[in-house]
Amino acid sequence: MKITRIEAVPYSIPYRKALKFASGEVTVADHVLIRVHTDEGIIGVADTPPRPYTYGETQQSIVAVVERIFAPALTGIDPFERSKAQQVLGRTIGNNTAKGGIDIALWDIIGQATVTPVSTLLGGYTDSMRVSHMLGFASAQELLDEALHMRADYGITTFKLKVGRRPLGLDIEACHVLRAGLGEDVDLYLDANRGWTANEALEVLRQTADVGLSLLEEPCDAKEALSRRRLVDKSPIPVVGDESVPTPGDVSRELLAGGCNAISIKTARSGFTEAQQILGLCEGLGVDVVMGNQIDTQIGTLATVTFGAAFAATTRRAGELSNFLDMSDDLLAEPLVIRDGVIPTRRVPGVGAVIDDDKLDRYRQDKD
Which of 21, 310, 319, 322 reaches 20 to 30 Å from 190, CA-CA? Predict the structure, then answer.
């Protein structure tokens, strides 16, 4: 089997409700659908989310690098030759989500060709993932109302609160209001998206010591090496690396330098192949992981569930899997369902992301 063609289809679907956080705001899913075609008629599918404020990628840059650089170099390669494909992709610096999308699409082809779910190929640990929901910037009462709705309607009992780049008092108040309103049986953790200094993060931790927070994600910029190391040393809870650790090399650097002591794995930026390498590093060093979210569509969320359910270590914590609920529509022919706080894997060959072509035609941005 050989790769014959790679498509990068830009599309745009608005959100019903914007997600606001320290490093940006998302109102529209301006994503790129990746489709890798083969000479046997099997097509691998993946989704790529541009995040210019995090990785520097835009919708236009993803289309350009896939069509002009990756597609010509990968055409003619057997999709099973994943290491060869990784070497080809690695010749180009950056472009994390474009590379990750192609890698997921290749795994999708392999699963279809072997008539095996990709989650089984990766490890097959379990058949579902518990769901964590991200809460964006809003008043404390609005955040509590949203969390109560997510628990009542979807059974979600883990919440990540976006904080940073606003008065500390608002974030501290939100932590206390959420804990008081949700009770002790709900897991709460924070993500500052590099929006604090290390001293600000320590002050928030001091004033929320009685809240029972479980994680603190990317509190300050990794370039603040000394202060971040001091924060990790003093923090009573794990400090999670996210934007600072998109590749295995970055993970090694931050863990060994003491810049974090837990890692967010995001398949949208690492694909499945590098995500395995990152997971192996973390397991070998005894470091906790959480399956993160790039404000993914249902296609991207399904990829996260596929990988996360494959390993014991990635199922110990709930994965960030629910923010597609804020989108006005999606491209999946069979929508994802959150029930009793979990999303199941798809027990079909490949990843299981079947695209509704009518919807793709409606939302694609490259129509003549």
Answer: 310
Same domain assignment for residues 271 and 253: yes
**Which one is catalytic: 266, 298, 320, 326?**
266
- Over residues 200-210, the mean pLDDT reads 97
Residue-level pLDDT at 20: 84
- Classify 166 as helix, strand or coil: coil
> Which tokens belong to 211?
């809240």
Cα angle value 18/22/27 (rounded, 5°): 20
Q: Are 137 and 166 in contact (CB under 8 A)?
A: yes
220 and 333 assigned to the same domain? yes
Residue 191 annotated to the active site: yes
Percent of the chain with pLDDT over 90: 93
Residue 194: both structure tokens together: 């590099």
* Last residue of one domain, picked from the residues 76, 97, 115: 115
Which one of the listed residues 108, 217, 218, 243 is annotated catalytic?
A: 217
Amino acid at 365: Q
Residue 25 lies in a domain: yes
pLDDT at 313: 98
Q: Tell me the pLDDT tens digit for each residue of 107-120.
A: 999 999 999 999 99
What is the domain range of residue 45? Answer: 3-115
Q: Residue 106: which of 136, 82, 141 has the closest Cα?
A: 82
Domain match, 152 and 272 both: yes
Active-site residue flag, 112: no
53: pLDDT strictly greater than 90 = no
Task: Give me Rg for the CA atoms of the chain.
Answer: 20
Is 330 catalytic? The answer is no
State the amino acid at position 141 in one-letter form: Q
Looking at residue 244, the DSSP 8-state letter turns out to be T
Distances (CA, A) of 185 to 42, 90, 142, 151, 338: 45, 44, 20, 12, 19
Q: pLDDT value at position 367?
A: 73
State yes or no: is 357 an active-site residue: no
In a domain, 363, yes or no: no
Domain count, the chain: 2
